[in-house]
Amino acid sequence: MYATEFLDLPPLRAAAGTVRLPGSKSISNRVLLLAALSDGATLIHDLLDSDDTRVMITALKQLGCAVEPQGEALRVTGLGGRLAVREAQLFLGNAGTAMRPLAASLALLAGLHGGRFELGGVPRMHERPIGDLVDALRQIGCQIDYLGNEGYPPLRLAGGQPRVGAPIRVRGDVSSQFLTALLLALPLLSHQGELVIEVEGELISKPYVEITLNLLRRFGVEVARDGWSRFTIPAHSRYRSPGDIHVEGDASSASYFIALGALAADAAAPLRIEGVGADSIQGDIRFVEAAEAMGAQVRQGPNWLEVWRGAWPLKALDLDCNHIPDAAMTLAVMALYASGPTRLRNIASWRVKETDRITAMATELRKLGAGVSEGPDFIEVTPPAAWQPAAIRTYDDHRIAMCFSLAAFNGLAGARPPVPVRILDPKCVAKTFPDYFETLFGVVTTDPADIPVITIDGPTASGKGTLASGVAQKLGYHLLDSGALYRATALAAQRAGIPADDEARLAALAAALPLHFDEQGVWLDGENVTDALRREEVGALASQISAHPAVRCALTGLQLAFRRLPGLVADGRDMGTVIFPDAPLKVFLTASAATRAERRHKQLISKGFSANIDDLLQDLEARDARDRSRSTAPLKPAEDAMSLDNSALSIEASVQQVLDWWQQRRPF
Ligand SMILES: Nc1ncnc2c1ncn2[C@@H]1O[C@H](COP(=O)(O)OP(=O)(O)OP(=O)(O)O)[C@@H](O)[C@H]1O
Ligand SMILES: Nc1ccn([C@@H]2O[C@H](COP(=O)(O)O)[C@@H](O)[C@H]2O)c(=O)n1
C-alpha cells in the first residue's frame, strides 16, 4: 500500500493483463455479522482484508466472538443470537457497513439480554446520518441514546424492551443501509412472532438490499418481500451457518478496471477481471451495462469479465444511477473521455457517503479542466477542452482515489502534452482495496520516458544510498542502488576466481548474474548477499571492474529495467550522465573526504566489520580517483545536475532538499 503523502501518476497509455479482485466489502461485512449471529462455525473464503472489514472483525472479537484464520480462510464461531460480553465500546472507523447493522443487532441484544454498548467512529462517521434507523428501532422498544449530535453516531445502546408489534416503518430514500441493518438484525426478535418492515419513500440502492436478502437466505432466513415497500421476517427465523461461504470479488472495485479496459485495452489483448461476472449477486455488476453504453466491449463468464475499447471517444450518457451509486463515480471520470456532456442522475445518496461525493467529484473534476454542473441529486460532466495537471484531493474516500487514477490516461483523449495526475493521501484506498495502485500498475503501461526518474550520483560514502532511499520512500518510487550491481559482479568474480583485468569473462558474468532484489535485500544465486556486498574489498574490486566498458554495457539493460511505474530514484556514479540522461531531476551529492571516511567507518563498525579510519580515507580517495578518471562513464556531475554538499546536513534535511527541488519541477 502507498502510505505516502501523495502518489504521482505519470501519463498512462495502455492496459492489458489480468486483475484478481479483492472480496466485496458489502458481502464481507454482512457475512461476518451473520456468521457471528449464527449458531456454529462459518468458514469464510476470500474475505476482503481492508479497513472496513478489520473494524468489523475487531468489533466482533470485542463482543466475544472467536474469529481465527484457518488456512487462507477465516473461521468465525457464532454467538447463536446471544451475548458473550455485556459491555463494550466499539470503534467502527468510517465503515457504514459495520455501524448500521451492528447498531441494530446490538440494540436488540442489549434489550433482550441486558447490555450496554457504545458505538462510534472517525469524525466523518459522526456526520453520517443514522436517525432513521434509530427511529425504526425505537418503534419496537429499543433504548438508544445519541452521545453527540441528535441523529448521528456516536450511540449508546442500553436497556429497553424490544417487542414485536405493529409494522416497523423505516425511510428508504436516504440510505438503503437502514433497511439492510433491520433485515439483518430483526430475526433476533422473531421468536416473539412475525416481523414486518414497511419502507417509507422510494427505496434507493435496491441491489444492496438484494445482497442482504440473498445472504440472509444463505444463513437460513427467508424474508418475504412485497415489491420494495414491505418485508416480512417469518416467526421463529433462525440464523444457520452455511458451513463454508465464498465472498465474490467486489463489483464496485471492478468498475475501475472495466473502465480501464474501455479506455485503454485492445481487442487482441482485453483486460481480464477475475472474481465477478454474470453470476454476481452485487448490484454494481450492472456497471457493465453503463460502461457498454459508453462504448466498452465486454465478454463475461460466471465470475470473470474481459473488457476492451469499443467506441472512441466514449459515448456521452444520461443515466439514472440509483441502482449503481458507488460504481457511478467511475462513470463521472469516464465522462472525461466522452464525446459530450454526461449526466448522472438520482445520486442524492452520494451526499451522505464517506464525504459529500457530488461536491467532491465536481471540485476535483474541475481541477482537470472539465466543465461540471451539479445539483442536489445529479452531476453533469463536460470533457476538458484543455487538460490540466491536478493534485486530486481524496477526502478520505477510497472511491475518489481509485476512480481519479483513470484521469492519467488523458494522453489518449488528446491532451498535449499528456499531464500527470497527483492523488493525495493514496492510502485511503485501504478502506476496500489496499493494493489498488499496485494492481493498477501491474496491468498498465506507458512510455518509459514518461516514468519519472530522480538520479543521485556522487563519490563513495557521500550518502547517496541513504538519500535515495529516503526520497523513494516519500514518493512511493522504486529504488535502484546501481553500485550493488557492480559489487555483486565483483563478489561473483571473486568467488569464480576471475581476475579483475579479464574484461570479456567479467562482462559475460555480469550479463548472466542470477541477481534478485526484495525487501530483505540483494540475493545472488539464492543467497542473501546484502552484507557481503558492503565489504570494503568488494567495493574496491567493484571500482576496478566497473572501469571495463563491456562490464558497464552488460549491466545497462538491468538498470534500465528498474524504470517502472510510478517512478524511480537511482543512485550511483553515472545515473544522470549515462543511464538516465533524460531524468527530470539530477543530484550530485558530495561531502568532504574526511566526513565520508568517518561515516563509512561508523557504518562498517555498526555492521560488525573491523575498519581503520585512515585506511578508509585512503581507499575511498583512491576509489574516487579511479571512478573519476576512467574513460567510460566517469564519475562527474551531469551538466544539469543540482549540487548538494551534505557534510553539515542531516539525512532528513538532505531528503527534504531533494523533495523541494522535485516539487519545483512538478506541475501541480
Ligand atoms: N547527511 C548525513 N549525515 C550523516 N550521516 C549520513 C548522512 N548521509 C548518509 N549518512 C551515513 O553515511 C553512511 C554512508 O551512506 P551511504 O551508504 O548512503 O553512502 P553511499 O554514497 O550510498 O555509499 P556508496 O558509495 O558505498 O554507495 C551511512 O552510514 C549513512 O547513514
Ligand atoms: N553507477 C555506478 C555505481 C557504482 N559504480 C562502481 O561500483 C563501485 C561500488 O559502488 P558503491 O556505490 O556501492 O560504492 C563504485 O566505486 C564504482 O566504481 C559505478 O561505476 N557506477
UniProtKB/TrEMBL annotation:
Gene3D superfamilies: Enolpyruvate transferase domain (3.65.10.10), P-loop containing nucleotide triphosphate hydrolases (3.40.50.300). SUPFAM superfamilies: EPT/RTPC-like, P-loop containing nucleoside triphosphate hydrolases. It catalyses: dCMP + ATP = dCDP + ADP; CMP + ATP = CDP + ADP; 3-phosphoshikimate + phosphoenolpyruvate = 5-O-(1-carboxyvinyl)-3-phosphoshikimate + phosphate. Its EC number is 2.5.1.19, 2.7.4.25. Keywords: Amino-acid biosynthesis, Aromatic amino acid biosynthesis, ATP-binding, Cytoplasm, Kinase, Nucleotide-binding, Transferase. One of its GO terms (molecular function) is 3-phosphoshikimate 1-carboxyvinyltransferase activity. One of its GO terms (cellular component) is cytoplasm. Its main location: cytoplasm. 3-phosphoshikimate binds at residues 25-26, 30, 175-177, 205, 326, 353. GO terms for biological process: amino acid biosynthetic process; aromatic amino acid family biosynthetic process; chorismate biosynthetic process; pyrimidine nucleotide metabolic process. Pathway: Metabolic intermediate biosynthesis; chorismate biosynthesis; chorismate from D-erythrose 4-phosphate and phosphoenolpyruvate: step 6/7. It comes from the Bacteria. ATP binds at residues 458-466. The keyword Nucleotide-binding applies. The active site is at 326 (proton acceptor). Phosphoenolpyruvate binds at residues 25, 96, 128, 177, 357, 399, 431. CDD domains: CMPK, EPSP_synthase. Signal peptide: none annotated. Catalyzes the transfer of the enolpyruvyl moiety of phosphoenolpyruvate (PEP) to the 5-hydroxyl of shikimate-3-phosphate (S3P) to produce enolpyruvyl shikimate-3-phosphate and inorganic phosphate. Belongs to the cytidylate kinase family. Type 1 subfamily. Belongs to the EPSP synthase family. This is Multifunctional fusion protein.
